[in-house]
């Protein structure tokens, strides 16, 4: 039914300006903005490698952070990726029930090496080694 229909992912943030800085400057993703006027009417459009789009919209005080991973970045070298995040002041998140190394990377043999972190709105993101 939707096999040839363009689609995109979306999630909310509490501060679109902070999201613009984090995703555009800190993570280095191409960003575009839509909407004019007051910030609560503006949205952020990320372009991921390969051309996929992610729509980020403001919810202000009504924002509730996602309790699951909203965006995964597939990397060749997870150690370098985590080192780069830490150098920018982003600390990996550690979850109960998982074992982590000193860097905050979960290296469970049942899946890829993964490290979770959050954006300024406390949404969960991850880097996974491909």
Automatic annotation (TrEMBL):
Matching InterPro entries: Glyas_Bleomycin-R_OHBP_Dase, Glyas_Fos-R_dOase_dom, VOC_core
Gene3D superfamilies: 2,3-Dihydroxybiphenyl 1,2-Dioxygenase, domain 1 (3.10.180.10)
VOC domain location: 5-130
Annotated protein name in UniProt: Glyoxalase
Organism in which the protein naturally occurs: Streptomyces laurentii
């Amino acid at each position: 039914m939707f096999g040839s229909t363009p689609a995109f992912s979306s999630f909310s943030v509490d501060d679109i300006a902070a999201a613009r800085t984090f995703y555009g400057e800190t993570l280095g993703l191409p960003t575009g903005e839509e909407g004019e006027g007051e910030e609560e009417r503006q949205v952020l459009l990320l372009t991921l490698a390969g051309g996929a789009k992610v729509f980020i919209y403001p919810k202000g005080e009504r924002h509730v952070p996602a309790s699951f991973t909203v965006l995964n970045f597939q990397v060749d070298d997870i150690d370098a990726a985590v080192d780069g995040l830490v150098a920018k002041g982003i600390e990996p998140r550690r979850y109960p029930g998982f074992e982590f190394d000193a860097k905050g990377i979960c290296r469970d043999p049942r899946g890829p090496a993964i490290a979770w972190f959050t954006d300024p709105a406390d949404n969960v993101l991850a880097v996974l080694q491909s």
